[in-house]
């Protein structure tokens, strides 16, 4: 795993925006590349003047969307039986897929948005979206907004790393440690968004129930 991290890290350092797009596209598909090892180092380079911070976020968002869109269309075209049969070879287990489907059925477009901010389910949500033939434009909008927000959070983490440890860029293990020790900020951010979202769901559900009774 360490060797893979070094390879991916090298893509970011030497591939620039195209490397970011390629890695984030894989991260959003069947290849389990952690986005935490892609965007923060790229943002670190941007903080040092080697890349543009908006460019890093845009490249990450484009890559995430491309990977998710490919997954959506593959599942829409091949259907459930083939995905269940061959998905296990790409770490897409029945259990993970069923959890993603339940999440999508319960929260629909908002579920796709929040799935882009959550581990495990983030790279899986496009598959049930394709299976249930979710509206592609709604799927695309939620994916793009969620991906842009996630990339922005990770970019902030990379910029913070540059301020704290400007020599961190050449140390893969140091990056992993830094992300782990600062991940509580990301968790807190996602938790606040989730609470706000569920409050809105609760309020809108109450309003719909009240209006249906009045009719």
Walk me through the structure.
- With 215 residues, the chain is mostly helical.
- The protein has helices at 2-27, 39-47, 53-86, 94-115, 126-131, 136-164, 172-214.
- 36% of the residues are buried.
- α6 (136-164) runs antiparallel to α7 (172-214).
- The chain starts with a helix and ends with a helix.
- It has one domain (2-183).
- The longest helix has 43 residues, at 172-214.
- It has seven helices and no strands.
- Residues 206-215 have low confidence and may be disordered.
Question: What's the helix and strand layout?
Answer:
Elements: H1 2-27, H2 39-47, H3 53-86, H4 94-115, H5 126-131, H6 136-164, H7 172-214
Low-confidence stretches: 206-215
The main sheet comes to: none
Q: What's the number of structural domains?
A: 1
Q: Total number of β-strand segments?
A: 0
Principal-axis shape equals globular
Question: What is the strand content?
Answer: under 5%
Helicity range: over 70%
**Can you write the helix and strand succession as a string?**
HHHHHHH
Instruction: Please identify the structural class as seen in this structure.
Output: mainly alpha
The first-to-last residue Cα distance is 60 Å
State the helix count.
Answer: 7
Backbone CA Rg: 18 Å
Instruction: Indicate the mean pLDDT.
Output: 76
Produce a short descriptive summary:
With 215 residues, this protein is mainly alpha-helical. It is 79% helix and 0% strand.
Q: What attributes does this structure have?
A:
0% strand; mainly alpha; 7 helices
């Amino acid at each position: 795993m360490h060797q893979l991290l070094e390879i991916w890290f090298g893509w970011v350092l030497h591939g620039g925006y195209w490397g970011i797009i390629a890695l984030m596209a894989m991260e959003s598909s069947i290849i389990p590349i952690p986005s935490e090892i892609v965007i923060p180092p790229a943002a670190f380079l941007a903080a040092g003047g080697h890349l543009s911070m908006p460019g890093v976020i845009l490249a990450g968002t484009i890559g995430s969307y491309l990977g998710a869109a490919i997954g959506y269309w593959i599942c829409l075209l091949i259907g459930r039986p083939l995905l269940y049969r061959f998905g296990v070879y790409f770490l897409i287990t029945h259990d993970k897929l069923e959890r993603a489907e339940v999440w999508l059925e319960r929260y629909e477009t908002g579920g796709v948005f929040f799935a882009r901010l959550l581990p495990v389910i983030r790279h899986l949500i496009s598959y049930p979206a394709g299976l249930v033939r979710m509206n592609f434009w709604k799927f695309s909008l939620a994916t793009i907004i969620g991906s842009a927000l996630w990339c922005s959070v990770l970019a902030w983490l990379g910029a913070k790393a540059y301020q704290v440890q400007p020599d961190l860029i050449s140390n893969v293990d140091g990056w992993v440690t830094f992300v782990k020790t600062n991940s509580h900020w990301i968790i807190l951010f996602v938790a606040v968004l989730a609470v706000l979202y569920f409050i809105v769901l609760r309020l809108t559900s109450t309003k719909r129930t009240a209006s249906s009774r009045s009719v």
